[in-house]
From TrEMBL, chain A:
A GO-annotated cellular component: plasma membrane
Biological source species: Roseicitreum antarcticum
Superkingdom: Bacteria
Protein name in UniProt: Mannose ABC transporter membrane protein/fructose ABC transporter membrane protein/ribose ABC transporter membrane protein
InterPro entries recorded: ABC_transp_permease (IPR001851)
Lineage of the organism: Bacteria, Pseudomonadati, Pseudomonadota, Alphaproteobacteria, Rhodobacterales
Pfam families: BPD_transp_2
TrEMBL record, chain B:
Domain spans labelled Periplasmic binding protein: 29-294
Coiled-coil features, chain-numbered ranges: none
Keyword Aminoacyl-tRNA synthetase: no
Cellular localisation: Cell envelope
Organism: Roseicitreum antarcticum
Record protein name field: Mannose-binding protein /fructose-binding protein /ribose-binding protein
Signal peptide: 1-23
SUPFAM superfamilies per the UniProt record, alphabetical: Periplasmic binding protein-like I
Molecular function (Gene Ontology), one example: carbohydrate binding
Length: 353, 337
């Protein structure tokens, strides 16, 4: 008891300590829970490190080579970027089921505007990005102003956007060679920098910059704190002077824009533009977010965690393939991780009340 | 609830009718989904033929490849509306058979298009590509192009783990044509020829093709021949090879014959592809139902086969001796999608 009261007294003495969690219990378990609560990315980082170490021991150089390790980054780049958009929305206790569809629509708009309509490639890219932003704004408006549940709004948006993609594109693929000849800017993110066997595509670099940027914005700006506050308790946030509506709309709009960028990166990766792409991006992005330790109930977690979540999926997928195991083992392990991650989240949530 | 959603989706997806009032029969076309260019083209072929013959056509599709429930609802709708026959591309070839039997019991002619049912006799007839033969053509072409096949390092990009019959037939055909012992003909992946370095999955799309090829390269960087289930997967595989500067060392073969795929043959992305004819499948299907409505006559299979073979052509811009081949121009003239 003595120990606890000391902690409670000590807590407000430094500015950092004001927002930190001080539990009522002491001992090793409480310390661990506290650490996890204050650094939500630590669990996925631990799992990631462990997974890399295990596959490294089992596979040796074929897995630990710069080639294979950077290959994982390339393979998770698209989902990683989409998962950043998903993270923002989930931090506000929402969910965005339309992320994959918005990504594809943006890429189709970029392709059709430049190849079919003959617009300058820069204009076509801008139109594609604008398209994602508008989709996000509509979702945000419906969630924040009309007060519809995010699940329903984005479920509807998903179907509407996907149908638009198929109707507009006529299910036709724009070939890589056509894009390379007429609008090479669309394949910009597919370019690679090679350093000693490690291959970094511009898409991967974009993902890393995006994570860094969002980490800064979420942690160091008023807007970032508002996002967390709205996700944790919108009523309290409103009373504290946060403009909940504006915050929500801006989150969905930014998520839409990030999805549009994912569409651009996708063209770089697969070369062509296909309306059939990215069908599972919404589920895969939610998987990365959840494994990455962001609470589905909003208000807690970090985008760095999401990046680790996406990387865990990538490490498992490539590692198990290199081991020659049936791909179903990947699904099984990822499924177990999702449940485990939510279990950890609930445990911490309970401890923090 | 499930039946209701499936029914609504079935209704929402095109239920259009073509032809004149004095229709010479009526037919339902049920495809796996309404977005895959292969099925879009198939529906076009069916509409064109039914307009020509004055047959009334209703078109249905699942919401996605694998959507079994919507297909069942569509069959029920077709039985209820008393059409003469159903042209069906089944998502689940074994599970759909009880619904198909219901339709046949109600006096409808059921023709499986593209994908044989399991068992094949569950439908009155199957109009399809000989997928094994399609595989054999690209396998033979690859072997003849290589000459000495002992140095071949083969990577295989299939569809998915469920090993659908179409994918198995193409894969086994390719290996047979190339001169590899296939082991169990009903499964890919059990071959023990050392020239095979790996099987990967592509989901039949460009993203999967790229990722599958990357994985193959991580397993065995020396690969010099890649079989792909279809051309989008081939295009994805090529992107992966291009990003590692390996595009000129690896020969890619494929199956389908879609227009973007044939253009990829012209561009040197794909060495050769086996071309299918979905428009033909649908048009012949509509004709068969019209005949059945008029005379009660059932369509006959191709001689020596248990289905009606709608043909397959080998399209390449690097022809080899001793094989029947189509040039890129010929392939483009009859391609789909």
């Amino acid at each position: 008891m003595q120990d606890t009261s000391e902690k409670k007294e000590a807590a407000p003495s430094t500015p950092e300590a004001v927002a930190s969690f001080v539990g009522g219990r002491t001992g090793l378990i409480a310390k661990v829970t506290n650490t996890i609560y204050n650094m939500p990315a630590i669990v996925p980082l631990f799992v990631l490190t462990l997974a890399v170490a295990i596959f490294g021991i089992l596979l040796g150089d074929s897995f630990l080579s710069p080639f294979a390790l950077t290959l994982i980054l390339q393979q998770v780049a698209i989902i990683g970027i989409v998962a950043m958009a998903q993270s923002l929305v989930i931090l506000t206790a929402g969910i965005d089921l339309s992320v994959g569809a918005v990504m594809i629509l943006s890429s189709v708009v970029m392709g059709k505007f430049s190849v079919d309509l003959g617009l300058p490639q820069e204009v076509a890219v801008a139109c594609g990005l604008l398209c994602g932003l508008i989709c996000g704004l509509i979702s945000g408006f419906l969630v924040a102003v009309v007060k519809l549940p995010p699940f329903i709004v984005t479920l509807g948006m998903w179907q509407i956007v996907l149908a638009t993609v198929f109707l507009y594109s006529g299910s036709e693929v724009i070939r890589s060679q056509t894009i390379a000849a007429e609008a090479p800017l669309l394949q910009f993110f597919g370019k690679t920098i090679s350093i000693a066997g490690a291959n970094f595509t511009y898409g991967v670099i974009f993902l890393l910059l995006l994570v860094a940027g969002l980490t800064y914005v979420l942690g160091q700006t008023a807007w970032g704190r508002h996002v967390y506050a709205v996700g944790d308790d919108p009523g309290a946030a409103e009373l504290a002077g946060v403009n909940v509506r504006k915050t929500l709309i801006s989150v969905y709009a930014l998520a839409g824009l990030i999805c549009a960028f994912a569409g651009w990166v996708l063209i770089g990766r697969i070369g062509s533009i296909s309306p059939q792409s990215g069908q599972f991006a919404n589920i895969e992005s939610i998987t990365a977010v959840v494994i990455g330790g962001i609470s589905l109930f909003g208000g807690r977690g970090s985008v760095a965690g999401t990046l680790f979540g996406a990387l865990i999926v990538g490490v498992f997928t490539l590692g198990l393939r290199l081991l020659g195991l049936d791909v179903q083992w990947t699904y099984l392990l990822i499924g177990a991780l999702i449940i485990l991650a939510v279990g950890v989240d609930q445990r911490i949530r309970k401890a923090s009340v | 609830m499930k039946i209701m959603t499936a029914g609504l989706a079935g209704l929402a997806i095109s239920a259009a009718a073509a032809g004149s009032a004095a229709a010479a029969g009526s037919v339902c076309l049920i495809t796996k989904d309404a977005t895959n260019p292969f099925f879009v083209k198939m529906a076009e072929g069916a509409f064109a033929k039914s307009a020509e013959l004055g047959v009334e056509l209703r078109s249905f599709a699942g919401r996605f490849d694998g959507d079994h429930e919507t297909q069942v609802a569509a069959i029920e709708t077709c039985i209820a509306s008393d059409v003469d026959g159903i042209l069906l591309v089944a998502s689940d070839t074994a599970a759909i058979t009880s619904s198909v039997q219901m339709a046949r019991d109600a006096g409808l002619l059921v023709i499986a298009l593209d994908t044989p049912l399991d068992p094949i006799g569950a439908a009155d007839m199957t109009f399809a590509t000989d997928n094994f033969q399609a595989g054999v053509l690209i396998g033979e072409w690859a072997a003849r192009t290589m000459g000495d096949t002992s140095d071949a390092r083969i990577g295989l990009l299939n569809i998915n783990v469920s090993q659908p019959t179409v994918g198995v037939l193409r894969n086994q055909g390719f290996l047979t044509g190339f001169g590899v012992d296939i082991g169990d003909p009903n499964r890919w992946g059990d071959e023990d020829d050392p020239r095979i370095v790996g099987h990967e999955l592509s989901n039949g799309n460009a993203e999967g093709g790229r990722e599958g090829m990357e994985n193959l390269l991580a397993i065995a960087p020396t690969i010099n021949l890649v079989y792909t289930i279809n051309e989008p997967a081939a295009a994805g595989a090529y992107e992966a090879l291009r990003s590692f500067g390996r595009q000129d060392d690896v020969m890619i073969v494929s199956v389908d014959g879609g227009c973007p795929g044939v253009e990829d043959v012209a561009a040197g992305v794909i060495g050769a592809t086996a071309q299918q004819y979905p428009l033909q499948m649908a048009a012949l299907g509509v004709e068969a139902v019209a005949d059945y409505a008029a005379t009660g006559e059932l369509p006959a299979p191709t001689e020596g086969k248990d289905f009606f073979d709608t043909g397959v052509g080998l399209v390449t811009d690097a022809p080899v001796e001793g094989m029947e081949q189509l040039s890129v121009e010929e392939g483009l003239a009859i391609c789909w999608g």
